[in-house]
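Long-time lurker, first post. I've been practising inverse folding by hand and with some scripts of my own, and I keep getting stuck on stretches where the structure tokens seem ambiguous. Below is the full token string for one chain I'm working on. Before anyone asks, I'm not after the true native sequence, just a reasonable design that respects the backbone. If someone could post their per-position residues I'd love to compare against what I wrote down in my notebook.
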């Protein structure tokens, strides 16, 4: 008998492109907007913050790989479903050569206009001068730390893939799933193995076939139904050593190109030089069988049921 699919690990990334926090449980949230339009925003605390340059544009590891060295710490109780921050609740940041920085979790009073990330621009909370100096000193260039303004801003996911869904400062979609078996297979082909943190998934799955997550169209964890959106195409970030913040020249991208490129997986489609690792997903709150759809908690060890698959990788959205 096959072993059931299980959640092996959960990771929250409070600041976009900075180091993640491994947690035993995480709360899935969505927000009810004006006119009763509901939007998906992912895990509580995931990519709520963003480091920006003097023009308000996002910094990520693509251009600032040193961000991998910034460690975040949240109160343990922050991952409980009904917890609310107090004036004594902080996001604490550490980085090599820097003193710890404490960011209050209560709502900031200052607002930054003209914040932009990829296709989105809008306003965000500004975390103040101390945080700005801390990141400016660490990166060696003018920087500020901003927080997503969930009460007034919406950052839609691409509607051609997930109409009606949104996220905070994640790349495009609120959830990234990957499997241990996929990593294990890749590592058998690499000159030197890499850890899963190169790919920065939120949810790592055990007992899955290698790259079995590619075919997930709909899965269920407890009462929560997640919809597969598309295969995750990878930028240069997986080449960045997450322990040193130093980018490598080629791996693991070069090896992935040999068996995980669009040219290999989708031979009938026009090749665009992309490589894939992981599956991007949204929480389909319309299919959640519960009266309270506001927040839900999933835990390490929870079972994953695959409800529906797509027939082949060649038909996967990319």
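-- Answer (accepted) --
I ran through it position by position. Result:
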């Amino acid at each position: 008998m096959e072993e059931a699919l299980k959640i092996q690990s959960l990771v929250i990334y409070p600041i976009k492109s900075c180091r993640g926090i491994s947690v035993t449980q995480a709360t899935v949230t969505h927000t009810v907007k004006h006119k009763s339009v509901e939007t998906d925003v992912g895990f509580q605390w995931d990519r709520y913050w963003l480091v920006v340059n003097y023009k308000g544009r996002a910094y990520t590891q693509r251009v600032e790989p040193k961000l991998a060295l910034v460690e975040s710490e949240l109160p343990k109780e922050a991952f409980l479903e009904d917890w609310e921050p107090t004036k004594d609740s902080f996001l604490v940041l550490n980085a090599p050569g820097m003193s710890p920085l404490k960011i209050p979790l209560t709502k900031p009073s200052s607002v930054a206009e003209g914040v932009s990330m990829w296709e989105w621009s809008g306003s965000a909370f500004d975390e103040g001068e101390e945080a700005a100096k801390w990141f400016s000193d660490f990166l060696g260039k003018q920087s500020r730390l901003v927080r997503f303004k969930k009460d007034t801003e919406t950052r839609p996911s691409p509607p051609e893939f997930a109409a009606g869904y949104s996220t905070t400062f994640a790349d495009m979609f609120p959830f990234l799933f990957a499997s241990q078996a996929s990593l294990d297979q890749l590592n058998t082909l690499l000159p030197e193995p890499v850890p899963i943190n190169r790919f920065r998934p939120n949810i790592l799955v055990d007992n899955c076939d290698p790259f079995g997550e590619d075919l997930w169209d709909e899965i269920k964890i407890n009462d929560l139904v997640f919809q597969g959106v598309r295969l995750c195409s990878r930028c240069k970030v997986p080449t960045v050593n997450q322990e040193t913040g130093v980018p490598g020249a080629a791996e693991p991208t070069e090896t992935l190109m040999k068996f995980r490129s669009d040219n290999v997986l989708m031979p009938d489609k026009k090749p665009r030089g992309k490589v894939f690792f992981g599956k991007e997903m949204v929480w389909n709150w319309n299919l959640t069988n519960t009266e309270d759809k506001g927040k839900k908690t999933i835990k390490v060890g929870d079972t994953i049921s695959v409800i529906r698959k797509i027939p082949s990788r060649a038909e996967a959205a990319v």
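A couple of notes from the structure itself: The two ends are 33 Å apart (CA to CA). The first helix runs from residue 129 to 139. Happy to go over any region you disagree with.
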